[in-house]
């Protein structure tokens, strides 16, 4: 089984990325052959500078490995190291109706947020479909915000199979974990870089503690009173890091009253900080040897290209682009 996912190097990784994609990706890497990549072509649609893109690409590789990606077992590569993906994106574009792309939320959301409506932003889902189909992927672990893109991918694969022969492409399945499909941000909206409501995976302890204390959404229930459990962002986030018994104890303390939000925030921060301790320590160690990261990416690219070449040869032949 081929498991594949991609993350954009568009800023610091946050716990939404972690629980939506990284944690399942790391958990699944022993279940089959894992191909994980850094979607730098995609990030170009919103990046401000070449330097930032390059730096974020390296940091994402470092962070992903620190979170448990095993480069001995899994293939980690940078999207642009396999430029063949653009050819497949073009081929898929020839069967991709405009209406399919026009319906995609991500484009509409980005434009509503003030991004320039360029072609690359519009055609983003066709490139994403190519990312997935180029490696004959079976399973794609992602957060819920990518569900529609996976549907577009299946749709395009189906259209290609109808036009050029059944079995040309595998139809991939999205893997969206129910309880972490949408990790809430500190303000209760979906956690997202563009909402400025993220809790990063890595960072300095003091500013992060301050951020949790200041930014997390709570109400003004007095200390002695019972506090609402339904819809509590603090509880939803705590649940990600705490064991079931600890989580239940915090729920009970909410219902009983007599404990202030300050105490709950402190407990949340401690659980979060402990949860990522092993990843933080691993990251510190890896930082001593940056050449190891580039080496992993180079090896990953070579392996990914090998696989991509097989699929692309098959596709070129099927659509009439090959002449041998
Ligand atoms: P990106 O970089 O925005 O996000 C990376 C992964 O994190 C998930 N995610 C979340 N999950 C739960 N709750 C949240 N609040 C949250 N925020 C982000 C995303 O769903 C995603 O799984 N288009 C992709 C990158 C991509 C890709 C691919 C993914 C390009 N090609 C091929 C899979 C397969 C994106 O922008 O992810």
TrEMBL record:
- Coiled-coil spans are none
Q: Where is this motif: 'KMSKS' region?
A: 190-194
The lineage's top-level taxon is Bacteria
- GO molecular function list: ATP binding; tryptophan-tRNA ligase activity
Positions occupied by motif 'HIGH' region: 9-17
Q: Name one GO biological process term.
A: tryptophanyl-tRNA aminoacylation
Query: Cellular component GO terms, alphabetically?
Result: cytosol
Report the locations given in the UniProt record.
Answer: Cytoplasm
**Quaternary structure annotation from Swiss-Prot or TrEMBL:** Homodimer.
Q: Which family does it belong to?
A: Belongs to the class-I aminoacyl-tRNA synthetase family.
Entries under PANTHER family matching the protein? TRYPTOPHAN--TRNA LIGASE, MITOCHONDRIAL
Listed name of the protein: Tryptophan--tRNA ligase
| Organism expressing this protein natively | Akkermansia glycaniphila
